Prior knowledge:
alpha+beta, 1 helix, globular
Amino acid sequence: MSLADACLVRLTERFPDCRLFTLDSDFEHYRRNGRQVIPLLHLA
Protein backbone atom coordinates (compact mmCIF):
# COMPACT_ATOMS: atom_id res chain seq x y z
CA MET A 1 0.00 0.00 0.00
CA SER A 2 1.39 3.38 -0.96
CA LEU A 3 1.14 6.47 1.21
CA ALA A 4 -1.46 7.94 -1.15
CA ASP A 5 -3.60 4.78 -0.91
CA ALA A 6 -3.31 4.80 2.88
CA CYS A 7 -4.47 8.42 2.98
CA LEU A 8 -7.55 7.57 0.92
CA VAL A 9 -8.37 4.60 3.15
CA ARG A 10 -8.04 6.86 6.20
CA LEU A 11 -10.38 9.42 4.63
CA THR A 12 -13.00 6.71 4.13
CA GLU A 13 -12.66 5.91 7.84
CA ARG A 14 -13.20 9.57 8.78
CA PHE A 15 -16.19 9.99 6.42
CA PRO A 16 -18.03 6.63 6.55
CA ASP A 17 -20.90 7.59 4.21
CA CYS A 18 -18.56 8.38 1.29
CA ARG A 19 -17.75 6.29 -1.79
CA LEU A 20 -14.23 6.14 -3.13
CA PHE A 21 -13.84 6.73 -6.86
CA THR A 22 -10.75 4.98 -8.18
CA LEU A 23 -9.25 3.34 -11.23
CA ASP A 24 -6.98 1.21 -9.00
CA SER A 25 -8.17 -2.37 -8.43
CA ASP A 26 -6.06 -2.69 -5.26
CA PHE A 27 -8.80 -0.99 -3.27
CA GLU A 28 -10.92 -4.13 -3.62
CA HIS A 29 -8.45 -5.77 -1.19
CA TYR A 30 -8.03 -2.91 1.28
CA ARG A 31 -10.26 -2.67 4.34
CA ARG A 32 -11.16 0.18 6.64
CA ASN A 33 -11.52 -0.07 10.42
CA GLY A 34 -10.10 -3.57 10.32
CA ARG A 35 -12.64 -5.57 8.31
CA GLN A 36 -15.10 -3.21 6.66
CA VAL A 37 -15.20 -3.17 2.87
CA ILE A 38 -14.54 0.25 1.37
CA PRO A 39 -17.51 1.37 -0.76
CA LEU A 40 -16.07 1.83 -4.24
CA LEU A 41 -17.18 3.54 -7.38
CA HIS A 42 -14.70 2.32 -9.96
CA LEU A 43 -14.41 1.52 -13.63
CA ALA A 44 -13.63 -2.09 -14.34
